[in-house]
Amino acid sequence: MASASDDRTVRVWDLMGVHAPLVLSGHELTVFDVGFSRDGRALVTASGDRTVRVWDAATGAMLAILRGHTGPVYEAEFSPDGRRVVSGGEDTTVRIWDPATGQQLVELRGHRAPVGAVAFSPDGRRLASGGYDGTVRIWEPNPAHQPMLLRGHGGPVPGVTFSPDGRWVASASVDGTERIWDSRHGTAALVVRGHSGPVHGIAVSPDGQRVASAGVDGTVRVWLCEICIPIEQVLVLAEQRSTRELTVEEREVFLHQR
To answer: Using CA atoms, how far apart are residues 46 and 54, in angstroms rounded to an integer?
Structure first.
């Protein structure tokens, strides 16, 4: 497990309690985010010092410093194959990097306020970002393509993630809601209200059936997302719970089935 701190360090913890934590030093200001590569061999960090850094998770050696953001960087994440890093920050940009060389590959502009959250899709072909402008955007990692704009939140969006199958994007907002979006069509499929204040974090379980949210109210809430399950199971649920068989038109509208 790794943690990021206001003390400018990252610590990698031995959950068995045998070894002292490995302390990674180098950032000059608060470290806002830390994440492992999928194979667990590397870490990526985002900091108020305007840098993204890549580290060896076993030794703590700094492997690369990614420079380009002109303000604090709030989140960074490895692509599923570990060959790219995406970051977002105060300068309103989403940037894609080559962690092996430290070179910036793409700069994506569109948000009109700081970017507080970024995430790769499971296949690594798309990105989602959450902005303080209250929008979620889904990008092809190519500046020539316009992002899909998802509107509905009434405040900054500091949390976004894809479902494991990539069909859905979940977002968390300071407006106190979590939303599930159809990642292909950009429509809001579900709005969840439960926290008594801003929601800052969101995660989807590996089976895609549960969503966890973290709020300023001091609670973490886990709820079942039936629409997030594989489409075959959605069809079974729909047929079990309907009082009549769906019409052809209803299947096209609600289940995208023709």
So the answer is: 9
Query: How confident is the model over 199-228, as pLDDT tens digits?
Result: 999 999 998 889 999 999 999 999 988 766
The three-class DSSP label of residue 41 is coil
pTM, entire model: 0.86
- What the block records as the tokens of 183 is 């990642």
**What are the structure tokens assigned to 246, written together?**
């769906």
Residues 6 or more apart in contact with residue 135 via CB below 8 angstroms = 111, 149, 150, 151, 153, 157
Long-range pairs, 98-107, Cβ under 8 A, ≥24: 99/42, 99/44, 99/54, 99/63, 99/64, 99/66, 100/64, 101/64, 102/54, 102/64, 102/65, 102/66, 102/67, 104/66, 104/68, 105/141, 106/141, 106/142, 106/143, 107/68, 107/143
3-state DSSP assignment of residue 44:
strand
pLDDT tens-digit readout, 116-126: 999 999 999 99
Confidence of residue 163 (pLDDT cuts 50, 70, 90): very high
